[in-house]
Amino acid sequence: TAGSRKAVAVLPGGGFVVLNTEVTPELEAEGLARDMVRAIQQARKDAGLNVSDRIRTTVTAVQTVLDALEANAELVKTETLTLALATVPAESGEPRITIEKAEA
Q1: pTM
Q2: For position 70, which CATH number holds?
Q3: Using CA atoms, how far apart are residues 72 and 69, in angstroms rounded to an integer?
Q4: Residue 8: inside a domain, yes or no?
Q5: How many domains does the chain have?
Q6: In a domain, 50, yes or no
Q7: Rounded to the nearest 5 degrees, what angle is found at the Cα of 19, between the Cα atoms of 13 and 20?
Q8: What's the pLDDT band for 1 if we cut at 50, 70, 90?
Q9: Domain with 83 in it
Q10: What are the CA-CA distances from residue 35 to residues 13, 20, 43, 79 (Å)?
């Protein structure tokens, strides 16, 4: 169809695979959220926290990133062991992450 983004591969032996390569807004938001998961995990490492430590996380970022975080909050919280995820809007610039160890 017009505007659809698909890739087709013919396999040896006669089979074929069709991939839909369209990036929906939901997929883009999930990708941004996963980028933030990686950044939060790096902040945890840089702070010398253990992988099992529960944390409180504050992300200061542009609205697009904050929207992606809010849409995927459970994923981010589960993957990073974040008990409380706060977001702060920024006009521009790279996201800034602040973490602190949560007391048990």
Answers
A1: 0.80
A2: 3.30.2320
A3: 5
A4: no
A5: 1
A6: yes
A7: 160
A8: very low
A9: 24-101
A10: 38, 22, 12, 12
